[in-house]
């Protein structure tokens, strides 16, 4: 067993690192200190030399080492949800291409956690802080977001809201939305066109902006045909597999009577599918099923899931490009607001209601 | 439209925050400065007051704000893999309970990214840095890990390796392993006991420690029965759904001849299942299928997947408890090495080979 002395480290100087990396000492200093601009290739070379020599910067350099690598921050509510982890993957890839490190914070929906993380990222002078996912769309929440946007701007950073409602006024924020209402209206219109008239909607939390957008689309599709869906068919809940499973069991037990299910997310649809199967119902023979998100394993379900495609990985890349492209040209003027379209992916989980069958009890 | 002046903020003093939170100014300072110990309840109260008053600390306090919230860092290779995101969720929950913020960095397997993140976390004085997932088990990689462990110790932090190979000697590291070899041996033993003799193994990268452990289990189960499996049946690849799908198609096209598939992860099994179905093969009627990890939607596949359960969320909690419990009692002595057991979960995807059938071509 070899004990390595920590005292043996730190013997190399910044000049040794510079020599090994083939750059000047001031470039090493800029890389470690986070000063712009340094190319990704130079950074890689310098950090490689730092590692090879096990270089330990002096105390002052250490103090700024937290700001040593330019960073991007990505904040989500639930790290176990596949849609946002694919978006995080897009953020990470685009950030890496641009020489930034992306940090992820999952808050479990806790506003204090989010605040603490944003504070930390502001102190680190992160180039941008990207918040993703539905939010409680209340005046208090909007007020908080405006403060966050302004405090980040004051630190030279930028708030990016992705799949969250835009803010009032001229808050310094980039907003990237995907069309929750339009996508939901399209897929519910498809279910209605197949002849379904009692469509169970497994929604989200009542004040969640994403859930509300999808619920509006469900209603709009009905209204477009002059239909007024039974309110008993709209059941709120979490965006999880277990919630979809439980709500479907309960709806069947309550004898709600439906021939199709529209799940507000594919995770909810995954749980619903298993609950339908456990009840001896065939999908789509007895009950049709549609989801939202098009997470990668939607096509691996049996039957493969008809759903609404949201380009999550591309959304993550776009959020980074918007934030960094903006920083690069130094503009801090107009708001930016992008709305991306979605589309229905038809697979095998939707069919016309069987003639003479009432569907689920 | 209301433009909020950033100059209007910062008018509150630390005493205002203290009064609102019902604590002393020095407590506010401790919370913002990251000094121990501060209870989670106090931290929440103080941070609530900071938010309510939109308090902006002075420059010095700002400089340490990066270290203001005690942090834990979690590093994984692929944020889209559900097993590690569930572990990240366990880390996050346990960290929150203990008043720490957990930061996640997904590196796409890039050692430079990992190094930059570890440097940042060291500068922030993160309480612990948890690395998860298989690694290339080479002398160079072990040497790097030993340096990382020592540099973190020098900063008062702690390296935790989870599901990664232990280091040589007395490096200051906590190692938490789950039993890859034992789990693989158990599930392959189960396939063999059902009568399967040609089991396709869809493994991982050849030098990945997790993949190697699972491959050893596959071989050990055969050797225990005096069998020597055909090396052509062991096919390396990535731990992804797409890799499982592609390799299964290729194995079928090559006419390898197998009656069962052991996929090294459930994601690989998910892709394999779809490829088998696309080839017109029934699971388990024509080919049996077993996975590894027991990710939540394994039970939502059709048929539900027989697999090896790894308690990922609990692993994440345990990693945090080990690291912080240790820091609390101040001990910096013995290595810590935990090995958690796994168990087979029998569902519907494995059956005896059909009499008179050769299985897949």
TrEMBL record, chains A, B:
Residue stretches making up the HTH lacI-type domain: 13-66
Keyword DNA-binding attributed: yes
PROSITE patterns: HTH_LACI_1 (PS00356), HTH_LACI_2 (PS50932)
Listed CDD domains: HTH_LacI, PBP1_LacI_sugar_binding-like
GO MF term set: DNA-binding transcription factor activity; transcription cis-regulatory region binding
Family matches, as InterPro entries: HTH_LacI (IPR000843), LacI/GalR-like_sensor (IPR046335), Lambda_DNA-bd_dom_sf (IPR010982), Peripla_BP_I (IPR028082)
Name of this protein: LacI family transcriptional regulator
Originating species: Streptomyces corynorhini
């Amino acid at each position: 067993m070899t004990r390595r002395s920590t005292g043996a480290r730190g013997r190399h100087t910044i000049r040794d690192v510079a020599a090994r990396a083939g750059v000047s000492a001031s470039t090493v200093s800029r890389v470690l200190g986070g000063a712009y601009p340094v190319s990704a290739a130079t950074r890689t070379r310098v950090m490689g030399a730092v590692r090879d020599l096990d270089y330990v910067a002096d105390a002052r350099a250490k103090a700024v080492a937290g700001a040593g690598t330019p960073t991007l921050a990505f904040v989500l509510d639930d790290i176990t949800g596949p849609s946002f982890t694919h978006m995080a993957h897009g953020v990470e890839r685009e950030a890496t291409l641009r020489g930034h490190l992306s940090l992820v914070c999952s808050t479990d929906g806790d506003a204090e956690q989010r605040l603490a993380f944003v504070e930390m990222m502001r102190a680190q002078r992160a180039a941008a802080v990207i918040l993703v996912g539905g939010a409680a769309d209340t005046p208090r929440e909007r007020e908080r977001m405006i403060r966050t946007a302004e405090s980040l701007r004051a630190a030279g950073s930028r708030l990016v809201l992705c799949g969250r409602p835009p803010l009032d006024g001229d808050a310094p924020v980039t907003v990237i939305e995907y069309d929750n209402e339009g996508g939901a209206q399209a897929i519910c219109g498809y279910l209605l066109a197949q002849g379904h008239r009692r469509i169970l909607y497994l929604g989200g939390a009542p004040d969640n902006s994403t859930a509300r957008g999808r619920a509006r689309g469900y209603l709009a599709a009905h209204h477009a045909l002059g239909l007024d869906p039974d309110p008993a068919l709209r059941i709120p809940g979490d965006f999880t597999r277990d919630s979809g499973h439980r709500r479907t069991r309960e709806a069947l037990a309550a004898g709600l009577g439906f021939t199709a299910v529209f799940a507000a997310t594919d995770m909810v649809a995954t749980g619903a599918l298993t609950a339908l199967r456990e009840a001896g119902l065939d999908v789509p023979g007895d009950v049709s099923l549609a989801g939202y998100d098009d997470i990668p394993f939607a096509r691996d379900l049996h039957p493969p899931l008809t759903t609404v495609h949201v380009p999550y990985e591309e959304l993550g890349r776009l959020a980074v490009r918007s934030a960094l492209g903006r920083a690069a040209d130094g503009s801090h003027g107009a708001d930016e607001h992008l709305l991306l379209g979605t589309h229905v992916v038809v697979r095998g989980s939707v069919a016309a209601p069987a003639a003479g069958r009432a569907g689920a009890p």
